[in-house]
Amino acid sequence: MHIFITGIAGFLGSNLADYYLEKNYKVSGCDNLIGGSIENVNKKINFYKVDCEDYNKMCEIIKNVDVVCHAAAYAHEGLSNFSPYMFAKNNVVGSVSVFTAAIKNKVKRIVFCSSMARYGAIKNPYKEEDIPKPVDPYGISKLAAEELLINLCETNNVEYNIAVPHNIIGPKQRYDDPYRNVVSIMTNLILQDRQPIIYGDGEQKRSFSDVDDCIYCIDKLLLDKSINKQVINIGPDENFITINELYKILCNKMQFNKSAQYYKDRPNEVKNANCSSEKARKLLGYKTTVKLEDSIQRVVDYIKYKGPKKFVYNYEIEIDSDIVPETWKKKIF
After folding, report:
1. Radius of gyration over every alpha carbon of the chain, rounded to an integer in angstroms
2. Of the candidates 250, 264, 267, 136, which has an alpha carbon nearest to the alpha carbon of residue 198?
3. Before 125, cis peptide (omega within 30)?
4. Per residue in 250-305, pLDDT tens?
5. Where exactly are the structural domains of the chain?
6. What is the signed CA dihedral for 296, 300, 303, 306, rounded to 10 degrees?
7. Superfamily, domain 2-168+209-234
């Protein structure tokens, strides 16, 4: 079995690759290394430094491959409000490039890693049969890529599944990115003895999912022949906590006693985002094997081991308006 993973130097892609290497599968993948790190890539992987948007290159490197997992994405939901062209190009054009190259090379199955941003501000908990109403360009672009995948695969008789992970945390997650990954950002700041930043009143609620509890679900979506043409939420429907509560957990674990800094709400941020895991339990055997506090500890231990880093502002803000968060505009991180 030859598995190809896009975004293989990123958080989810690299952890998925490690999982398959341990099972002695042949693993190949690509990454443009803008959001990922070459340090995450195991030397046993057949690695290509290729951007998914480069269709001709994707056609070259996806050859003699059985299944493709498209995990690459600029996963910056808030930033997409101010850099919509970049996100549409990456998440729509880049995805179509991958899907087309895979189908052209006659792969058996494609799994697309979407996002719970697809749901938007609808009633919680989000269920797969709900009508999505995304509220930002990132969520809109992810939903568009889903529709394109379904259309292309059904037209060309290729198997597909769509994973909808939410708030994944764990080792190898980038922690010097000021635009995403709240647990990693806070941990990096605390290790520098700096006050973490919370947007709004901090009462927005999220459920966090350990990467290990995501990997075995994606494995079934890729390789289980009985699961086809499915959209499935991946992540817990318990441990629904506020960002303020998350900060308290981190402070207790890291013996940090400074208060957070509070800034204005980010535009279009959904107040409460929580998914139902019922379908995942039924079809994928999903269950939370890593408790939230243990998962957070894994993040803390990883960043302590790697050492704190300065934050890198490596994405262009295309619409520099008055509502761009001050933290990004003034590079406060």
Report:
1. 19
2. 264
3. yes
4. 999 999 999 999 999 999 999 999 999 999 999 999 999 999 999 999 999 999 99
5. 2-168+209-234, 170-206+238-269+290-329
6. -120
7. NAD(P)-binding Rossmann-like Domain (3.40.50.720)
